[in-house]
Amino acid sequence: MLDQVLPTVRLKDLWIADRNFCTLGFLFGITARKGRFIIRHHANMPLQTIGRRRLIGQSETGKVYEQKARFMDPETGRLKTIRCVTVKLHVATRDGEQELRILTNLSIKAATALKVANLYRKRWSVETMFQEMTENLTCEIRTLGYPRAAVFAFCLALMAWNGMSVIHAALRNVHSEETVEDNLSGYYLALEISQVYHGMMIAIPPAEWEVFQNLTTLQLATLLKQLARKVSLKKLQKNTRGPKRRQPKRKYSGNGQHVATAKLLARRNE
After folding, report:
1. Which phi and psi angles does 89 have, rounded to 5°?
2. pLDDT at 238
3. Most buried residue among 4, 19, 27, 210 by CB atoms closer than 10 A?
4. Across the chain, where does the E strand assignment appear?
5. How confident is the model at residue 256, as a pLDDT?
6. Rounded distance, CA 54 to CA 51, Å?
7. Which of the residue ranges 170-184, 202-216, 249-263 would you say has the lowest mean pLDDT?
8. Domain shared by 147 and 197, yes or no
């Protein structure tokens, strides 16, 4: 489906994606449309590194190296030289990988290797968004058997997420990014809105909401920041859990035989 995605690439767009998007056609397609990309290298995509990699610095997740690399367009035979940023991780991924190789056609002036590594790391916010949409905004309702109804419900959840993102932005601006990202519970925030909304619609007449229709973007942002200062984050705080307990190893009889519960019940009733 990448051929359907490419027409959406615009001049100076920056596309950040995982290794499933790392194909020769997609990378050359973005470049041809004068877009930019930060995409993790897929091991199956042929890539030739040039020279030794240089240690650039340290990020939050590991040591960052950089070197040049090039690959060939299979259709035209053209060679393309890009930057290859490698992050040697402090902690291996869940797949056991110790390094991440990130490809980009951004210039060093536009983004250093450390900036590239940091931008790619923030790509996980996309997965976090879908997780919160699923768990807190119920974007996947199992009883919706009709595809169009399911897509409609998903789009409604996506619109609700956009509204939640505005709330998050206002809170980050007032209470600091670290405080909001580390402590604010998306579940309690969604619960607060859903519980209070109906009563608020009854208590506040429709005419009181008309003032928001004529606000400029700057005026609305200023108002949201004023309201964010009155929010008590303690009421919306995440519940931190303790360390996971190790599960005891299961003991097996070793005789290789399995007795069904139904058989045991049948013997008891004989």
Report:
1. -75, 145
2. 86
3. 27
4. 14-17, 36-40, 48-58, 62-72, 79-89, 99-104
5. 59
6. 9
7. 249-263
8. yes
Q: Is 176 exposed, middle or buried (0-12, 13-18, 19+ CB in 10 A)?
A: exposed
Same domain, 12 and 59: yes
Enclosing domain of residue 111: 2-122
Residue 130: how many other CB atoms lie within 10 Å: 14
pTM of the model: 0.63
242 within domain boundaries: no
Which tens digits make up the pLDDT trace of 55-75?
999 988 899 999 999 888 777
Helix H segments across 79-146?
113-121, 124-135
Neighbours of 129 (CB within 10 A): 16
Tell how far CA 85 is from the center of its chain. Answer: 20
Question: Would 95 be classed as within a structural domain?
Answer: yes
Residue 141 and residue 232 share a domain? yes
Domain count, the chain: 2
Which is more confident, 78 or 161? 161
